[in-house]
Hints:
The protein is an alpha+beta fold. It contains six helices and ten strands, in the order E-H-E-H-E-H-E-E-E-E-H-E-E-H-E-H. The protein has helices at residues 22-27, 42-48, 58-65, 113-128, 182-194, 236-254; strands at residues 6-9, 37-41, 52-54, 66-75, 78-85, 90-92, 105-107, 133-142, 145-156, 202-206. A hairpin with a 2-residue loop joins strand 4 and strand 5. The model has no long low-confidence stretch (mean pLDDT 88).
Amino acid sequence: MAxxxxxxxxxGIPEIAPGDDLxxxxxxxxxxxxxxxLVVTSKIVSKAEGxxxxxxxxxxxxxxxxxxxxxxxxxxxxxxxxVENRQGIIGAAAGVDASNAPEGTVLLLPVDPDASARALxxxxxxxxxxxxxxxxxxxxGRPWREGQTDIAIGAAGVYVFEDLRGQADAxxxxxxxxxxxxxxxxxxxxxxxxxxxxxxxxxxxxxLGRFVGDxxxxxxxxxxxxxxxxxxxxxxxxxxxxxxxxxxxxxxxxGPLAE
Length: 259
């Protein structure tokens, strides 16, 4: 197991426009070798794929990208909507974002982030001859914790988990549930060299080639917890209201209370 790795921001990436060949742009900006993992900000993928709408349609875009509302909260400037979007990601505003977008527009997430990552990895491997992996990252908040971090929303040619179940820890005890999400760890670490305002949307992780594999490995969609194992399907207020209504309806169906 490697005890050292490094992450380098890739400078010189120009402003991306719809139709741009991202693989060619990235390959021209840095040298890549076998085992390298690229962490690519999903926004430049969205730009290349033309996932741009006018800012006046932001609320409509959020609704269009939403498949399930988890929680809503009023605040001084409006309403925050925590939703599950078409990509299966649960977060604020369905991933619709105005930051680093052309003036007067907002960006939507790629339609299929795993497919986008696979296409990018395929292109990079063909152009460079290097067996590389690709992670598409985006910024999300976390339940119960302030602040945000980057997570993997798309992946190709990368083992998104390091499955340690069945192995022993340093004291010889069996590991029963330990399965670090490598893709999320790398996405968050790479953001430290990319930043939000530095104009560096791509980072290369070197020294962790053991996590690079075939392009048909499960992507980031496999990180999403299935509904049947999701203990927090609703916000607290929404769950309370639903329970209250269910109890009220049940009481009404049973008729008036006996004296």
